Structure formats: C-alpha cells, structure tokens
Amino acid sequence: MKSRFLLLAILAFILLPLGLYAGGADSLAALLVDLPGWSAEKAEGSDASYGEVRAIAATRSYENGDKRIDATIFFGTQVVSAWGSEYKEGFKVDTPEGIMEVKKIDGFLVYYGYEKGESAGGIMVLLQDPQKKADSGAVLAVEFEGLELEEALKIARTYDWGKMKAEVAKLN
Fold first, then answer.
1. What is the pTM of this model?
2. What is the number of structural domains in the chain?
3. SS3 (DSSP) at 49
4. Which of 7, 32, 75, 150 has a 20 to 30 Å separation from 21 between CA atoms?
5. How far apart are CA 128 and CA 75, in angstroms?
6. How many Å apart are CA 112 and CA 107, to the nearest integer?
7. Given the DSSP bridges, would you call strands 120-128 and 55-64 parallel, antiparallel or unpaired?
C-alpha cells in the first residue's frame, strides 16, 4: 500500500528541486488552494519534460496541529507507475491493518489506501487515464497523517477536481 505513495514521494523529490518552471507547472500549482483552518507554504511546481517525455508536477504541504497533508498533481510519464492498471472501480482489499479501495467519487475514479492503526494513508484521484496515452496521465495525490479516512476524503474533495482535469487536458 505504501509503495505507490512512496513512489510518488520519490518522484516529487526528484522533479520539484529541478525548478524548471513552466506555464503548465504554474497553472497546476495554482489549483492547490488554501484549506480552511490549515497553514501551508506556497505551492511549488516543476516541469522536467524532455522532448516527447512529459513530467510536470505541482505540490503543496499543509499542517494543522499534528495533522499533515501533502497534495501533489502529477502529469506525464510518471503517472503510469503510480496508477496501476489493476485500479478499476470495485477493487478492494480490507484487512484489520488497513484498506485499499477504488471507487467513483463525484464522477472520478479514486484510489485510497489507509493504515487504520496509524491514521495515515493516501488518496489518488485519476484526472486523466495514463493507459490511454502513457505520457499524458494525471493524478491528484493526497498523502495524509493524523486523519481518519473519511476526514481525509472530505478534505481531498475541497480541491476542484473538475478544474484540475480541464487544466491537465490543456497540457496534452
């Protein structure tokens, strides 16, 4: 469960320090809005695209006491490895330790993994399917700590997924 989110964190660590800002990264960063009651740094974006290979990311970290959220929009090749081909509506694994599930929320496929004992996990919203065109997939990834799953899902829905989908469509 942690492996997909760890992969996204590593990709963000690699891509964001490059500081290769472009209109696409800036437009995605602008969609990582303030969350009521949370403090946050300014969103950062990077475009590490090279030739035909697309790799754009925007991220923002939030804190509220001992609660933490890291939100990242990924667009491009890296999404193929983040959104597994097995992530179809109805996918579900529920154990005493945690849950992984894919379901439709507000018309979007959403994958989430949650560690019950840790009150931590991650949510990925499929904004553009990477299976249709590998270099143009897009997800919103929300990693969280100190939150129950339902609260984290409610916060993730604070972002305008429709605007995100429209913005990544412009990047094709």
1. 0.85
2. 1
3. coil
4. 7
5. 8
6. 15
7. unpaired
